[in-house]
Amino acid sequence: MLKKLERYFNFFVETLSMSLLIMMTLIVSWVVFSRYFLHKTPAWGEEASLLCMVWFGFLSMAIGVRDNLHLSITILDQYLSDKTKNNLNWISRVLILGFALFMIKEGIRMSQVATGNYMPGLKLNSAFLYAVIPISGVAMIYYIISASISEIKRKEVTR
């Protein structure tokens, strides 16, 4: 059941991220084409590409947490014991979890503050731009918990 949920969740996040990247590329291409060949820039182009870029960036950050692609200093790994490396790995997870909780809390606050503003080109509430921050935080928490459960199960099997 957990594997099926994880597969659907991964599919949703990855598909949405890829779609946003494609949309951003198409929008920027259209804006450049229309600016230089049609001599008219669409009013919505810059805001739409910004929206896609922000959503893509934050969702990609969650995927990076899932795939353990965050920056780390690995030069010391050859000098540390396995137990110390494992402890540092758990500390890293706790810190990422704390950052994800911060993203949720502050992302909701930012969205609430932005509800009074609109993006003029898209005629869309600015809160939509910031809504990805808590969504990404939830995805990061899901991926951290999922990785932790998998590691605990893997250790129980090896014992």
TrEMBL record:
For membrane topology, the record states: Multi-pass membrane protein
User: Record's InterPro entries?
Assistant: DctQ, TRAP_DctQ
**Which residue windows are transmembrane per the record?**
12-33, 48-69, 90-108, 128-145
The family database entries (Pfam families) matched by this protein are listed as: DctQ
Subcellular location per UniProt equals:
Cell inner membrane
Please tell me where this protein is predominantly located: membrane
Q: Which UniProt keywords apply?
A: Cell inner membrane, Cell membrane, Membrane, Transmembrane, Transmembrane helix, Transport
One of the record's GO cellular component terms: plasma membrane
Limits of the Tripartite ATP-independent periplasmic transporters DctQ component domain: 24-152
**One GO-annotated biological process of the protein:** C4-dicarboxylate transport
Q: Which GO terms describe its molecular function?
A: transmembrane transporter activity
Family, similarity comment: Belongs to the TRAP transporter small permease family.
Any idea what this protein is called?
Answer: TRAP-type C4-dicarboxylate transport system permease small subunit
User: Which source organism does the UniProt entry give?
Assistant: Thermosediminibacter litoriperuensis
